[in-house]
Amino acid sequence: MDRQEILGRIAEKFLSGSADVKECFDCGRIRIEFLSDGAVRYVLDGERVHFFYSVASVLDGRKIDTRSAKRITLSMKKETGVRELQASYEENGLRLVQHFRLKENVPYFILSCSVKDLKQEKTESNYLAPLDFGYPDKNCNELFRSLDQKMLLVPYDNDMWVRYESAPLRPGRTSYDVTAIYNEETNRGLVVGALDYSDWKNAVRCSAYDARCYTAFSGVADACTHDCMPHGSLIGEEVSSSRFLCGWYQDTRDGLEEYGRVCMEGKERFIWNGPVPFGWNSYAGLHIGMPLLDHWKEAADFLLDELPEFRDAAGKVTVNLDGNFFQDKKKMKKILDDIHARGHLAGNYMSPLIAHKMLGMIPLRGSVGRTMKSVVMKDRNGEPFPAADGSVPVDITIPAAEKNLRLWIREIVEMGFDYIKIDYLSHGAVEGPRYDKTVRTGRQALTRFYDILREELDPEKVGREIFVDLSIAPLFPAGGGHARRCCCDAFGHHEDVRYVLNALNFGWWTSGSLYRYADPDHTVLYHAYPDGREHTDPSSARSRYLASAISGTVMLLSDNYGPSGEPGDIRNARERTKHLTGNPEINQVARMGKPFRPLELRSNTASLYYLDTGSAVYVAVFNFDSAERRMPIPLDGIGAAQAGIARSVWEESDFVYEGELSLSVKGYDCALLRLNRAEGGQE
């Protein structure tokens, strides 16, 4: 046998996936196969999907990898409809255990891993990777061998105008907590996501050595998580990773929706029994130096007197006073009482986890002579952490910082506010040493913050529900508020519309699962003072309003309605707002509180979104081009009838269609149609 033939046989053996199946376990649709090379193969409905290894390390650098470790035990525990598997391995004085949970009639399995140091009394680790997917061979689904596979990049938080991406695989590409590897043409793909987030920051990352290998792990800390230090380590007799869901889906959208539901099973969260909030937020409408309280009152009067259609399901609006530092509290209380006397709601603002260079001198409540600057996080040399987005993170485990938080919340509650916007929460989750040494990771610190928030705002304690809207905040820990901004500051231009819809396109599944509502940020219809751009054109304004209405949603306007400012701007903002908020059906769509589903998951933000209400199908279409376009609507893909009468909601008019449906949409404009459902659609 010559050298070329030998190399050919070696290559053939490598590409064929030559590892033997040593043991296998079935549960409903799933089979888990343990292979002779330390890998585990996931099989669904008789089709091989992919294989993976598990890896962990301890703080002194020792590592255990199921590729090279010796397997010691393999066991299974049966319950009704459930199988639990455990496989243990040993290497380098470490023991790694894979913990599988399989359920009948679902396409996914759940896996975590734990590591135990056999040489030390305690185990200390900041890296565990339950799912380290190997280089795809012919026994993997063809998607994973394709150069066309895409990776959904889910951002860690919503700060600094970060956005979701559908991107080709590339070394180092990272999605935080959850991802999908999928085909854009068919939507078929693999969903992998962490189910636990109170201890670990989790990620799925493409390998630096071959991008078609990717690893789901606990222990990420990088520039996108705003960290300047490694992920904190956990310590105990053994250390466990987060649990990860891994499932193959014929439609990745179904998989992401299922992930969102499973992710919140058994979790504590803020529960909201009220309606979708409608109202106004001051941030974009005002600029520094304006007499904020006068504008707050003017906006309240405008909404209550001149926008009769712009109401929540209870007939109320919420008027939120954003960033109200150093305001006259007596005058604030008087305006708040006036809003309440008229039967409506008032909102406040807080940012308890930062010390801004300008606001760091704000006194701490309950600590005489101390300021926010005195409770910032410091490195091991005693130096304050670097500022992220202009602000230094606060250590909530310092007793004075916790006391300040509790007193601040109580102050807002006692004044009678009904809504709180809480800003800059990502700062509370950075890695680093804290006053309380039992808090070892950033996620543990932020979880403590949410626990305090939940305790102080317990409806039984305060006597009412107060709506909590998280602003600059990580996607996880989830459930820490009733709503979370799906994006950073979004104003009123056509690129802002694309930005808001990017979060709907790839993150629609977070609304109603991780949070009651995904908040599309304040809706600017004429001019945003902090923005620095020109006035919004009418088509973009209409698209901006519709983008908010279909996002899940929180409907907060944000223009300057007076009393001071450019008179022409105030007049035009009022007129445009009255016009765009006056369509009853679009407001009713928003009041449903349901996100529209994207037609497709592609690299660019999708133009079409739909919602099946059980009695009709709504279709929202957006034109991102400056020129008018004829836009087709694929009736099969949205579950609509092939023929019938279409309602053009903006125009409040009907037209007949049959077999095909398309419509012309002006540049940067939008359309909303109501169609009949196809026969046999699910209620």
Molecular structure report:
- This protein is an alpha+beta fold and 683 residues long.
- It has three domains: 20-263, alpha-galactosidase from lactobacil brevis (Beta-galactosidase, Chain A, domain 5); 278-597, TIM Barrel; 607-675, Golgi alpha-mannosidase II (Immunoglobulin-like).
- Strands 6, 7, 8, 9, 12, 13, 15, 16, 20 and 21 form a ten-stranded antiparallel β-sheet that branches. Strands 1, 2, 3, 4, 5, 11, 14, 17 and 18 form a nine-stranded antiparallel β-sheet that branches.
- The longest helix has 17 residues, at 399-415.
- The radius of gyration is 27 Å and the shape is globular.
- The termini are far apart.
Question: How do the helices and strands line up, and which of them pair or pack?
Answer:
Elements: H1 3-16, E1 21-27, E2 30-35, E3 40-44, E4 47-57, E5 63-65, E6 70-79, E7 82-91, E8 94-103, E9 108-117, E10 123-125, E11 127-133, E12 150-153, E13 165-168, E14 174-176, E15 178-182, E16 189-194, E17 202-206, E18 214-218, E19 234-236, E20 239-240, E21 244-249, H2 252-263, E22 278-281, H3 292-306, E23 318-320, H4 329-341, E24 345-350, E25 354-356, E26 391-393, H5 399-415, E27 419-422, H6 442-456, H7 459-462, E28 467-470, E29 483-485, H8 494-507, E30 517-519, H9 538-549, E31 555-557, H10 567-580, H11 584-591, E32 597-598, E33 608-612, E34 617-622, E35 629-632, H12 635-638, E36 643-648, E37 653-658, E38 662-665, E39 670-675
Parallel strand pairs: 22-23, 22-31, 23-24, 24-27, 27-28, 28-29, 29-30
Antiparallel strand pairs: 1-2, 2-3, 3-4, 4-5, 4-11, 6-7, 7-8, 8-9, 9-20, 9-21, 10-19, 11-18, 12-13, 12-15, 14-17, 15-16, 16-21, 17-18, 25-26, 32-33, 33-34, 34-39, 35-38, 36-37, 36-39
Helix pairs in contact: 3-4, 5-6, 8-9
